[in-house]
User: Fold these one by one.
Assistant:
Number 1:
Amino acid sequence: MATSIPSENLADEQEMATLFSSMNHDAEMEAMALHGLLEANGIESFVVGPSTIPSVEFQVQVLRSRLEEAEKVMNDARAAGTSAAEEAEAAQEAGNLATE
């Protein structure tokens, strides 16, 4: 006997939530960096905003069901600072060289 998932629960799981939003001059760059960080941690995300109109807000959105996890990844990365990003990039490059 098959059971069905109530449609409102499915809709809640697929609802997007804004994790980051900015209209700063570097908003697109920051949004893309955060998007890459989330994707690297297995959290699907989307960048919303037109790159042709710099005065329009950029956002990074994630599934509402993963918002708390995404906030933790973002906050941990901010707390670690640029040195952690540089270390991760160097480790990734070293791994890529080893597989070639």
Number 2:
Amino acid sequence: MKNSSDITLTLMGDDFDSYRVTAQTKRGESFVAAHLPGNTPDMTSEQMRAMRDRAHKCGLAVLVE
């Protein structure tokens, strides 16, 4: 996937209240490792908004799809 985001939050097709996190850059990988240790689980929309807000405060570019 080619985009300018550090992390991507992807809406899961079969559950419209669930998102998956994907790191796109080394900076994004560091952020995900710090905030979602281990495997990146599916998140609810409320958890996704909190993750997006934290990433923006850290200066990361976030793509929501």
Number 3:
Amino acid sequence: MSKPRVRFIGSRELHRDLPKVLDALEDPTARYVLTIHSKPKAVLIGADAFLELLKGYTPTDRLLALQLGALVQGLEAAGTPNGTPAEAITPELVAVGA
């Protein structure tokens, strides 16, 4: 079983790579955090993953929620006046889970 992955993706990259992203979302453990101006704005998950969320949160999803909460609070607190991109704060590809 592959480890769940969270990938940060900017709006331009999403626009350019939409077919690849949609293919990747076939994996129910795939998660994309859409960033706009280096700030997280949305989480993209596949339809099957969404249906699983409706049944109940998994430990992986709780961890992602905690990580996103910390990232958003950190960006708001810091104000990122120097424009530090979210990708520079966290790795592009992050393993989530046990």
